[in-house]
Design brief:
Blueprint: H1 2-19, E1 28-34, H2 40-51, E2 57-63, H3 66-78, E3 85-88, H4 95-99, H5 118-121, E4 135-147, H6 148-153, H7 162-174, E5 178-180, H8 187-197, H9 199-202, H10 204-213, H11 221-231, H12 246-254, E6 258-264, H13 267-274, E7 280-283, E8 296-306, H14 313-323, H15 326-336, E9 339-340, H16 350-358, E10 361-363, H17 365-370
Parallel strand pairs: 1-2, 1-3, 5-6, 8-10
Antiparallel strand pairs: 3-8, 4-6, 4-7, 4-8, 4-9
């Protein structure tokens, strides 16, 4: 009888705990889609850190091939499904999804967004309604990455003027190297090349502001001069550069076939994986004179958003709030060697620190200003 009483008392206590909200949290699984197939290991580390505070939430990181991601995502969302967490493109790449109602607005839901710079948040803001739909994850800067060993062997230093840059390219070419790894088979890589070369010659932010306001256009003599500078690089690009793909470019630089690579800061992490012994330096494409402003295209690379039709939005918001913290931002920079969009993050990587120190940001003209709608 006594044992029966104790059993009943124990059962009553357990039931009381349940009714008082002390039951174990319900297990939830979130799907997280991305185009970053090369970052699987890093994101698994990030998710593990998140799970220390939220063991009840399982996050499945599912990356797709970069060139196929947009189509797969759009098709899925149009069909009423898709992932819980979405890695979003920036600016005009995000707008169509927000306009179609596929994304959850984040104002008032992710309080950490108040810590982000206003120009950074523009990369995750819909033009039509002015609402923020994503937590920005990275800022990219387009500069000249160079092989420090090759430069040292050839007695070269970072060029201070455009003419010095061309002389540097000529010298490494004569030494048997490809001067610049850049090719143009993939259209977007030509846009990146433009983003690295052109700003010092068209006037950076001043020209950008004028063309956005309609005070000038792409026939402006400054922009035409910038395009001519790109043509001056042709002798120093790889043979048959129009057939050189993005992967080819990466391989040439990583395998130390090419001395320089005009590219986004996002390449540092990839290069470290491809060749851990590669010593990389970086500088901004110089202007005509050593005192000319060294503008370089800088932009938000993308953000993390939430599927408006998702069934686990509370849990998805918990994950997004984690992705907006300084803790996450520092992990992102340390593991991926990229500039986190979270303010106040530093890097111990000399190359990335150099890129950050050399930044004289100007908007990436074609991405931030003309990626919306269907420009002609």
């Amino acid at each position: 009888m006594k044992k029966c009483f104790i059993l009943l008392l124990t059962l009553a206590l357990v039931l009381g705990m349940v009714t008082n909200g002390m039951a174990a949290p319900k297990k939830v699984t979130l799907t997280f889609w991305s185009w970053r197939t090369e970052d699987i290991e890093a994101y698994e580390t990030f998710i593990t850190q998140f799970n220390r505070k939220h063991p009840e939430i399982t996050v499945e990181f599912i990356p797709y091939k970069n060139t196929e991601y947009n189509t797969i995502l759009s098709t899925s969302l149009q069909g009423g499904s898709g992932p819980d967490i979405i890695q979003l493109r920036a600016y005009g790449g995000m707008d169509p999804l927000a306009n179609a109602g596929y994304l959850l607005p984040l104002e008032g839901k992710v309080q950490e967004l108040k810590n982000f710079a206003s120009d950074v948040l523009l990369g995750a803001t819909c033009r039509r309604d002015g609402k923020i739909y994503g937590v920005p994850f990275a800022i990219q800067s387009i500069q000249v990455l160079y092989n420090k060993k090759i430069f040292a062997a050839q007695g070269l230093s970072e060029p201070k003027t455009w003419s010095e840059l061309l002389k540097t390219a000529e010298k490494v070419k004569k030494a048997g190297y490809v001067a610049f790894a850049n090719g143009t088979k993939d259209a977007w890589t030509l846009e990146t090349l433009f983003g690295g070369v052109a700003p010092p010659f068209y006037g950076g932010s001043d020209f950008y502001d004028k063309v956005i306001k309609g005070e000038t256009n792409f026939e402006d003599s400054k922009l035409q001069n910038a395009l001519k500078k790109m043509v001056e690089l042709k002798p120093y690009l790889p043979d048959n550069f129009t057939g050189v793909s993005y992967t080819d470019m990466q391989m040439m630089f990583a395998q130390e076939v090419a001395a320089m690579f005009i590219a986004g800061s996002y390449e540092l992490g990839t290069m470290a994986q491809m060749n851990p012994n590669l010593e990389i330096g970086a500088f901004v494409v110089p202007g005509e004179t050593a005192t000319a402003p060294k503008y370089n295209s800088t932009y938000v690379d993308g953000s993390y958003g939430i599927n408006a039709a998702g069934k686990h939005q509370a849990e998805a918001l918990a994950f997004l709030r984690f992705l907006a913290t300084k803790e996450y931002g520092q992990m992102f920079t340390d593991h991926l060697q990229q500039i986190s969009a979270v303010p106040g993050i530093t890097s111990k990587n000399p190359a990335l620190s150099g890129i950050i120190g050399a930044m004289k940001p100007t908007p990436f003209l074609m991405l931030t200003g003309f990626r919306y709608g269907t420009p002609s």
